[in-house]
Amino acid sequence: MTDPSQKSILTTRQGHPVRDNQSLRSVGERGPATLENYQFIEKITHFDRERIPERVVHARGTGAHGYFEAYGTIGGEPATKYTRAKVLTQAGKKTPLFVRFSTVIGSKDSPETARDPRGFAVKFYTEDGNWDLVGNNLRIFFIRDAIKFPDMIHAFKPDPVTNRQEAWRFYDFVQHHPEALHMVTWVKSPWGIPADYRHMEGSSVNTYKLVNDEGEAVLAKFSWVPKQGVKNLTSPEAAKIQAEEVGHATKDLYEAIERGDYPEWEFCVQVMADGEHPELDFDPLDDTKRWPEDQFPLLPVGRMVLDRNVDNFFAETEQSAFGTGVLVDGIDFSDDKMLQGRTLSYSDTQRYRVGPNYLQLPVNAPKAKARTNQRDGQMTYRVDDAGSNKHVNYEPSSQGGLQEAPQPEKDYHQYVKGHLGRYQTTYTQSDYKQAGDRYRSFEDWERDDLINNMVADMKACPEEIALRMVWHWWHCDEDYGRRVAEGAGIDLKKALALPPLPGKPAPGERRSGPTYTSGQREEGTEQGADRMSLAK
Q1: Are residues 348 and 461 in the same domain?
Q2: Is residue 43 part of a domain?
Q3: Which residue, of 345, 360, 375, is where some domain finishes?
Q4: Mapped to the 3 state alphabet, what secondary structure does 64-85 carry?
Q5: Which residues form the Catalase core domain (predicted)?
Q6: Residue 427 DSSP one-character state
Q7: Are residues 304 and 450 in the same domain?
Q8: What is the CATH number of the domain that holds 142?
């Protein structure tokens, strides 16, 4: 085991020591992130530029065109009770869309049988401009703070020396992030290998807000439920398919649409009152957690049908570009720290990968008329409608230029108050609880496949990592930890003798919030040593 005192200090590219590499700067624990997150911006924008021209993540994928038909209701009530978004409120309204399905870690030519989350990105071409809903098939993620995203992907991608995905690198990262246990339990089960794209769920993963005409907001999570049903593969089943076909899911979707067997999903939303929720044992803004459906049911909103294949894979699927910040009126951001970080990263990636004028490409361009004062840039080939006077590309103007849209009579205004600093969530007991709940909810064959996969991984890990992972799994569920230990030949007593992770609360405990003193700087705290604030 490496002596911690011998480790070199992590710095920014400017050489500044990094005192907290776990947390964005935000207004309070659950407040919004701030634009002056220099450390995060430098880290994430460099990460966005690590590969060219292939996507850094979600490189392998396929896409199709279709439409969304709104029911006009949410949970049997008029959708206008929750939102003023026209795409959701007008019953029978059909909105054209484009969907891109993908794997996450593998390269563009990697097999679609890979054990990996599946991307599920939808671009709605609404009358009020584009709405992008970018998520995955499992409703959760590995981390809850966007500043950790480059580290996570680096650990999951191939080793920079061997160019192979190594189990020990994956679990070396996971062992330090108990919030990842929930997602790992899903991914290492059959749910980590969907049978194909037509038979998998989709989700926003992040928490958004719905806003109605009265300026009232509720928290919301979106999900896609396949009407074809859900089908997953065990590792042996996936290996058999991969021996004959590396692009089986792309082939399946293309051929189904060509023969007129159009896949369909029901679009659902979960809603929750906006604000604090001390009655819950998890933070609803934490994207490593699911909202329990018995408390927050999936409410049908509409249906999606995919009925047309692309004419050219590169022009449409490969150059399609999505961003979590692409919203329409009536749908707004929450303070989910992954959502806040992704909103910068996704669009920044597209400007770099495809170019600053990626929105001029037909697959990305809105169907609604675009009128901006933005000009030029690499590969521009047209100019947005500038209004009645083409000489005026600025605003405001008295000479016939563009003008701002009228404000709604009532709008949503979030009240924000808190100490600016780097925070980690105090809701930590559910890091183990939801993973254990998931393990117990699996059918026997799903649990067996999960254990087999986990055992194989533990055998490929150094003892210190395998012991800590067994410790984690046992605290999720005793049977879970015991079966992994027995299968991998790990000493369970030795694993359980390990102390809790340094600086982390013991499983089942809730982290104490930081204490502030007037004019003092916190030293040696988990949240970092760069926060100052006044006590009440």
Answers
A1: no
A2: yes
A3: 360
A4: EEEEEEECCEECCEEHHHCCCC
A5: 11-403
A6: -
A7: no
A8: 2.40.180.10
Q: Whole-model pTM?
A: 0.88
Peptide bond into 117 cis (omega under 30): no
Compute the C-alpha angle 9/57/324, nearest 5°: 100
Among 339, 360, 381, the domain-final residue is 360
Geometric angle at alpha carbon 370, from 367 and 375, rounded to 5°: 140
| Closest to 61 measured CA to CA, from 107, 123, 4 | 107
The string over 241-250, giving b where at least 16 C-beta atoms fall within 10 Å of a residue's C-beta and e elsewhere, is: bbeeebebbb
345 with 472, same domain: the answer is no
CA dist., res. 189 & res. 238, Å (int): 12
For the chain, what percentages of helix, strand and coil (3-state, to nearest 5) are there? 30, 20, 55
378 Cα distance to chain centroid: 30
Residue 280 within a domain: yes
Question: What is the sign, positive or negative, of the torsion defined by CA atoms of 340, 304, 253, 362?
Answer: negative
Q: How confident is the model over 253-283, as pLDDT tens digits? A: 999 999 999 999 999 999 999 988 999 999 9
289 touches 246 (CB < 8 A) = no
Tell me the pLDDT tens digit for each residue of 383-395.
Answer: 877 777 888 888 8
How many domains does the chain divide into?
Answer: 2
434 and 344 part of one domain: no
Q: What distance in Å separates the CA atoms of residue 468 and residue 471, rounded to the nearest whole number?
A: 5
pLDDT for the residue numbered 61: 92
Q: Which residues are catalytic?
A: 58, 136
Specify the residue for token string 């192979």: 164
- What angle do the packed helices 478-488 and 463-476 form, to 10 degrees? 150
Do 48 and 167 fall into the same domain? yes
Residue 148 lies in a domain: yes
Q: What is the pLDDT of residue 479?
A: 98
Tally: H helices and E strands in the chain = 13, 14
Residue 367 included in any domain: no
Q: Can you tell me the distance from the alpha carbon of 27 to that of 487, in angstroms, rounded to the nearest whole number?
A: 46
Coil vs helix vs strand at 331: strand
- The residue among 149, 122, 51, 57 whose CA lies nearest residue 353 is 51
Q: Which has more pLDDT, 251 or 40?
A: 251
Any alpha helices (H) in 394-461, and if so which ranges?
430-441, 444-459
Please give the pLDDT value at position 171: 97
Residues 350 and 458 in one domain: no
- The boundaries of the domain holding residue 57 are 25-360
Is 60 exceeded by the pLDDT of residue 522?
no
Specify burial of residue 3 (Cβ count, 10 A radius: 0-12, 13-18, 19+).
Answer: exposed
Same domain for 62 and 173, yes or no, is yes
Cα Rg, the chain, nearest whole Å: 24
E-strand ranges in 233-387 read 264-273, 299-309, 331-333
Q: For residues 329 and 437, state if they share a domain.
A: no
